Amino acid sequence: MQTHKLANWYHEHFEATLQDRYITLEHIIQLLEKLPSTFNLKQLGVSVLDKPIHSLTIGNGSKKILMWSQMHGNESTTTKAIFDLLNFLSESSEISKMILNNCTLCIIPMLNPDGSAAYTRENANEIDLNRDAQTRSQPESVILRSIYDEFQPDYCFNLHGQRTIFSAGNHYKSAIVSFLTPSEDEKRSITPNREKSMEIIVKMNEMLQKLIPNHVARYDDGFNLNCVGDTFQSLGTPTVLFEAGHFPNDYARERTRELIFYAIMEAIQYIASNEIKGTFTAAYFEIPENEKLHYDILLKNLQTDRKETFDVGVMYKEILKNGKIHFEPYIEDKKMLKKSFAHKIIDFQEAIAQTYIFQSFSLEIEVSEYLRKFNKNGI
Prior knowledge:
Layout lengths: L6 H7 L11 H9 L6 E7 L5 E7 L4 E6 L8 H14 L3 H9 E6 L4 H6 L20 H13 L3 E7 L4 E3 L8 E4 L11 H20 L4 E3 L9 H7 L4 E6 L9 H20 L7 H5 L4 E3 L1 E10 L5 E13 L2 E11 L6 E7 L3 H4 L8 H13 L4
Parallel strand pairs: 3-4, 3-5, 5-9, 7-8, 11-14
Antiparallel strand pairs: 1-2, 2-4, 6-10, 7-9, 11-12, 12-13
Helix pairs in contact: 3-9, 4-9, 7-9
């Protein structure tokens, strides 16, 4: 990854207390309470399990940006990036002063604290909050809509994470960061709100291409009014979806977190210093679409007792154990592979793989056992 202009600041000042994938309310509450008095910390309400949901408001500019993270509890990378952003805005610099003079930011760092604790997509009632924007059957959904109505943002940043399966187009390069301007109708019409979102995304993509060329993708824009982004876009607010994806060999997503920080900074600075008119829409559609083309591991040239050669596609399950996320391999596809690429390829014709001999177990158990043993050595 090449170097961003904020890299020196970032590597010295990112929020080092937040690491890896398991980020809960307990991890962030003390950080929230230690923020300077210029941050207006407010409890908006409580979750299903009565955990507090907070917002932070900072700045006094006329351009209002609402952003929220961990709507899905197991999507924590953007939460880490938010606290990196808060660290930056806590310090006095020309950039931070410019942002706060021109913008007012309202940030919900963790919308779904129950799902975050359980490391699940859904909330404690097993409801996907990103499919509850119309019904608003859950307290977390009510809170988000209430702050939206009260704050009346000019822009919304909907912060998420995506699985390792995604490629930046039909390409071996993973989608490290993906963006979307949600649709407002079934026809996916290119409305003024979407055009403004596209302009912001194009500027972020231009910056990221210098750091991670060909690793940025465009998320599917199928319309679903039950999704929060589609709803807010339909209500007249240009909305940008951020998806934090897989940087090679970075399952903790620390490198992705850094890139998300740069992307958010790019977007905020651009909004703060420009009148966004909705240009550059053609460049938005030049960003390749997300495609589901990656395995975590591809085992090539495995052999049966009959010397038949075949390949196995392997994915990781993210399992919460003792307060940490463990990546446990499982066989997704065997022989007839459904995906085209893999983040790691192990060829059993090579010496390191030939040292493991299948004997007494069924094939799937044997391969899984091999992966567990290999995993200890650095997968």
